[in-house]
């Protein structure tokens, strides 16, 4: 009996195969359509958000001043050990380059950058440049030492070599109160110059206090809105959203009027007999806390309300019907389901607070200024883009760490509670 060979391949005109191909083509067209719809937003985010952040982060490590002003000197110093004075070629190259850039902005920026590493370097560079060019036949090494004896100091030349790289960690280390010592090792900044870790700690602490205050005030409001009838809840929502319709600057100015010594708050406290003299409520941390809680409170209420609105009241009624007291039912049944809103609202308020500038600048004293104030200071006044970018990078890194912690720990642990 002849054996029949069964073909495992489908016939060429199999309708099942044709249907699968049409489904795959339809799926590809659907994905291409979705991609075309998302593409404008993706381009907008890349141009208006990702590219500026990347450019700012590059500024924090960019170091073009000395590298662009003294390339020949740096080429000679590249193979210099640094244990003794550099060779005569380094002195000759420095005199040629100082002569070439004398009187140009390039000289000023290079001297300013060197001065950040070693105080007094700017006056040395400017003093030496004014003596350029040297007379023909003059020994450059002896001439520089006669102009200023500091040119016979090995540390001066080490500074030129250290700052000659096109990229540097100087600004990032300074933002963390760290520096590189003469031996090239990582060291802490002297206590009299160490300020940025204190500023970062102050920023985190003030942001935490504001977030906790917003949570304590916003939780009852969100709970009331979630359990009121629809018409009353909508009216209360209008009052919550009302601050969004007013400029932040106007709200801060209003708080200055209310909290000053002759303001309405102090007048009310004196009239009620609570105090005998006006309290100092402005230009200190109390005024900053009050204004920032008022401004950021809606960012806490709205996430809480969105989560509480989705919690069925059946859970509470079931717990109480089984003999659980009302407060214990609330704590054991209702409160765990609000944790996603608490986490989202607290994270949102905390992150926004870390980057606030106007409110502490107008309502606070120098002891209340946060990282954003110093970023604006280096950007607008000293024009030190590297330091401003480094502080911004530290602030961005802290924000990302908080977000990752929330997403991996709190978000994962709270997801089952919300379902």
TrEMBL record:
Q: How does it sit in the membrane?
A: Multi-pass membrane protein
Q: What Gene Ontology cellular component terms go with this record? A: plasma membrane
Give any single GO term for biological process: transmembrane transport
Name of the molecule in the record: ABC transporter permease
Whether Cell membrane counts among this entry's keywords is yes
Keywords of this entry? Cell membrane, Membrane, Transmembrane, Transmembrane helix, Transport
Record domain ABC transmembrane type-1: where: 200-406
Question: Where does the record say this protein resides?
Answer: Cell membrane
Q: Indicate the secretion signal residues.
A: none
Q: Which Pfam families match?
A: BPD_transp_1
Taxonomy, top ranks, is:
Bacteria, Pseudomonadati, Pseudomonadota, Betaproteobacteria, Rhodocyclales
Membrane-spanning ranges: 32-54, 204-224, 236-258, 286-307, 338-363, 383-406
Q: Which family does it belong to?
A: Belongs to the binding-protein-dependent transport system permease family. CysTW subfamily.
């Amino acid at each position: 009996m002849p054996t029949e060979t069964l073909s495992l391949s489908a016939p060429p005109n199999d309708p099942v195969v044709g249907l699968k191909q049409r489904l795959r083509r339809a799926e590809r067209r659907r994905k291409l359509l979705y991609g075309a719809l998302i593409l404008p937003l993706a381009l907008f985010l890349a141009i208006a958000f990702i590219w500026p952040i990347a450019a700012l982060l590059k500024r924090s490590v960019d170091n073009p001043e000395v590298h662009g002003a003294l390339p020949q000197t740096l080429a000679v110093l590249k193979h210099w050990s640094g244990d003794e004075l550099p060779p005569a070629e380094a002195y000759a190259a420095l005199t040629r380059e100082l002569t070439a850039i004398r009187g140009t902005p390039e000289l000023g920026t290079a001297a300013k950058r060197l001065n950040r590493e070693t105080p007094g370097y700017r006056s040395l560079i400017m003093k030496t440049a004014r003596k350029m060019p040297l007379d023909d036949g003059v020994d450059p090494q002896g001439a520089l030492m006669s102009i200023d004896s500091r040119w016979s100091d090995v540390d001066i030349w080490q500074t030129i070599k250290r700052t000659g790289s096109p990229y540097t960690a100087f600004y990032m280390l300074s933002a963390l109160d760290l520096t590189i010592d003469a031996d090239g090792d990582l060291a802490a900044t002297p206590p009299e110059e160490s300020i940025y870790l204190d500023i970062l700690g102050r920023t985190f602490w003030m942001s935490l206090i504001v977030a906790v205050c917003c949570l304590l005030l916003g939780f009852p409001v969100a709970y009331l809105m979630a359990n009121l009838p629809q018409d009353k809840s909508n009216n209360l929502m209008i009052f919550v959203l009302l601050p969004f319709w007013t400029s932040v600057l106007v709200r801060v100015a209003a708080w200055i009027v209310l909290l000053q010594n002759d303001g309405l708050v102090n007048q009310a406290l004196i009239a009620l007999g609570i105090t005998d003299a006006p309290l100092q409520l402005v230009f200190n941390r109390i005024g900053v806390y009050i204004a920032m809680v008022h401004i950021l409170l809606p960012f806490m209420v709205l996430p809480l309300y969105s989560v509480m609105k989705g919690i069925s009241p059946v859970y509470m009624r079931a717990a109480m019907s089984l003999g659980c007291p009302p407060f214990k039912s609330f704590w054991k049944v209702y409160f765990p389901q609000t944790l996603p809103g608490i986490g989202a609202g607290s994270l949102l308020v905390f992150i926004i607070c870390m980057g606030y500038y106007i409110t502490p600048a107008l309502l606070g004293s120098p002891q209340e200024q946060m990282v954003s104030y110093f970023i604006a200071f280096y950007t607008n006044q000293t024009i030190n883009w590297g330091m401003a970018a480094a502080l911004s990078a530290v602030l961005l890194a802290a924000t990302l760490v908080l977000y990752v912690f929330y997403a991996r720990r709190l978000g994962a642990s709270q997801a089952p509670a919300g379902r």
